[in-house]
Amino acid sequence: MNIAQKSSISNLFQKISNDKLVILIDHALLSLESAQNKLLQTSLREIELKGMKGVLRKAGTAAFHPCDETSLSSSFDLAFSYVLDTPPLDGLTAKGELGYKFNFADPSYLTSFPPEDDAQAYAVVHLCHWRVGGGRVMLNDLVDIDLQTSDALREKLGPLFHGEGIELFPFKKDAWLARSKHFKNLPSASLNKVMNDDVLPWLIGVSKKDTANSHPSLEPGIHILRRLQSEVQMFLYDQTDQVSTQNKVNSIWFSDTGVAPASWDSLERVSASENHEHELFKTTDAQILCLHELTKPMRHHDFNAWLEGLNHIDELIFKPLLQHPHLQIVLCGQNGFKTWSVQNKSWFQQSLNTIKNQLRGVPSTMELLS
């Protein structure tokens, strides 16, 4: 974690209140494959996580919420709906709409395609690398891309998207926001579900993962988006500075479509760090702290960086919040998420609960994160 990230967390803490606080951490739970890594097992036996375990001593037992392997939405998407007490719609996370709402609140910002009876919808366009091999096409993350390169690429590709009725907006250095009628009610697979996997079963319009994704009414938009994806790939292939080499941008991925439910109207974003690794949201009765620092290390199977990020979260987030009166902890993984609650109880009740959990023992780090 660099100085800018630490400063961002420091600024974020100034905005955390004593209301209910939900800490939602992406890629905190280990997949079965990762949990079997011997070096990682050794490291996890040595890691202390005093802050996290201190919080969990006050909590009850964890509840596990499974995520279907074929679900288009990631476990983080499902957890976000869970903490907002709204039923999840598979592949319709509305994160694109929220991104636009929080970054472009001024409705006069964009005029090329005026909304037509609320027909416009939003998506996130991820910059990614498709690797061909062994008869499959695998979606890989980028090693890195700077904001200047991303902005220049968006300017070059803008006319191509515009010609298909899609407007692009800046969002993050490795992703853009898009607005078009083509995204209306169109389910799409989360990047986290497709990462390091074969893209074919997850493509928009492929019904292997979700039959709702191939509904006849969606076919015109599906055809346009699939064609645009191919055109972008050809464009990138012809760019001398974007040659399809290891982990260079050679494709895009549409995700986070869907319309935000009316109950999310009260949702506000209080703070966001660079590239949105830390985001603090507020509802009428709670705050939600979303942490994505562990995502890229886990995608790249960089367990040293993942452990370092976990330690930073423990030191900078959990330890300062040990005395917070009402916490909910949500750890997300590949196949589901775990939840713990620390209720605002009387001193006597809290002491009894702490003693009970100390006698029962806090789970080992491996058990906690699996």
Descriptors:
single chain; 370 residues; alpha+beta; seven-stranded mixed sheet; five-stranded antiparallel sheet; 12 strands; 35% helix
What does this structure look like?
- With 370 residues, the chain is an alpha+beta fold.
- It folds into 2 domains: 3-86 and 262-368, no CATH class; 102-255, no CATH class.
- It contains 13 helices and 12 strands.
- It has helices spanning 3-13, 32-35, 38-46, 50-57, 75-83, 95-103, 147-162, 191-194, 219-238, 295-299, 303-318, 347-360, 365-368, and strands at 20-25, 63-66, 121-133, 136-140, 167-172, 175-180, 251-255, 268-272, 278-282, 286-291, 327-332, 336-342.
- A 7-stranded mixed beta sheet has the order 2-12-11-1-10-9-8, with helices on both faces.
- β11 and β12 form a beta hairpin.
- α4 (50-57) crosses α11.
- The longest helix has 20 residues, at 219-238.
- It is globular.
- The mean pLDDT is 86.
